[in-house]
Amino acid sequence: MHEPVLLTEALEGLAIRPDGLYLDGTFGRGGHSRGILERLGPTGSLIALDRDPEAERAAQALRDPRFTFVRTAFSALGEALAGRNANGMLFDLGVSSPQLEDAARGFSFRRDGPLDMRMDPQAGESAAQWLAGAEEQQIREVIREYGEERFAKQIAAAIVAARSREPLVRTAQLADLVAKAVRTREPGQDPATRTFQALRIHVNRELEEVSLMLPQALAALGEGGRLVVISFHSLEDRIVKRFLQSLSRPDVPARLPLRAAEMPQPALRIVGRAVRASAEETRRNPRARSAILRVAERTAGPLQPKFRIEPGARWRN
Ligand SMILES: C[S@@+](CC[C@H](N)C(=O)[O-])C[C@H]1O[C@@H](n2cnc3c(N)ncnc32)[C@H](O)[C@@H]1O
User: Fold this and answer.
1) Which residues of the chain have pLDDT under 50?
2) Cα of 162 to ligand 1 centre, how many Å?
3) Mutate to test the pocket of ligand 1, among 54, 79, 96 (most ligand atoms within 8 A of CB)
């Protein structure tokens, strides 16, 4: 099962109006979605997205006339909302426990399985396909940047040497090879953790997805609407934090002599501080250890032209 992380805090952050329209951009197994539905009245509604076919299957079991599921990447949330404004949106980023625990999905270094790692196994390249064709330097950069791995150079060299002997197609092959290339051990952490994280982020274009999602979420939030994002590593949290910070500051060239009352109101207001899971929740659910939740509210302020969404536009960190 997947236990939703920071459930109470996420629902509080959404400040749910019983008659509102909400979007859960990362349905997973629907833990947060169920919490939202419990707080909605009969005229409220919830649209949930996920790109994983297993999440879609789980969503089909949720029979509620107020609920709709769309299998799509959250970078396409604008299309899923089809011009409607939402009163709140939640994004619980990363992978779910069922994805990690199902060996057949290839996310796990503990359980041997095909080296896949795609959240949507019907789209894009698997980790094995990418590793078979990528340049050594590309592999090194992905592992260094997305895994923040000190031994990226040694791991990339070991991958390239191994693939010239036999195809690298199982998670156990990769985990063994990484364990040999990483010369030190971090307490309580498998040596393959960072490399698997890096490949997963790359294969699923996770940071690009977040960068594309944020401006669309902003554009589709109604006035007073809440944006709640739960991140699990510093790379995605940094993108979220910078976006929220830059949109919650008045966007006026410093040399313009404007009085406070004349300043255009920023499009977002940050609500509270970043929230982490309590010791009690982390004990119950170790996945919550690295979670960080941020909340912002859409104001009546204008959207600055640079944050109007053009087709194919992206917000960069
Ligand atoms: C941490 S889990 C969410 C768990 C969920 N909140 C629950 O309570 O069950 C993240 C989910 O988001 C999905 N996901 C991640 N990135 C996505 C993206 N860019 N577009 C659509 N779904 C995505 C994954 O497939 C996974 O099911």
Assistant:
1) 311-312, 315-317
2) 32
3) 96
The DSSP secondary structure of 48-73, one letter per residue, reads: EEES-HHHHHHHHT---TTEEEEES-
Determine how β-strand 292-298 pairs with β-strand 268-270: antiparallel
CB distance 144 to ligand 1 below 6 Å? no
pLDDT tens digits for range 181-190 = 998 888 888 9
Residue nearest to atom 2 of ligand 1 (CA): 96
Give distance in angstroms: CA of 92 to centre of ligand 1. 6
Q: Nearest Cα to 194, choosing from 225, 227, 233, 248?
A: 233
pTM of the model: 0.94
Gap between the Cα atoms of 180 and 159, Å rounded: 11
Evaluate: CB of 275 within 6 angstroms of ligand 1.
no
Q: Is 312 exposed, middle or buried (0-12, 13-18, 19+ CB in 10 A)?
A: exposed
142: how many CB neighbours lie within 10 A of its CB? 22
Q: What is the pLDDT of residue 255?
A: 65
* Span 51-93, pLDDT tens digits: 999 999 999 999 999 999 999 999 999 999 999 999 999 999 9
Separation CA 246–CA 89 (nearest Å) = 19
Atom of ligand 1 nearest to the CA of 119: 25
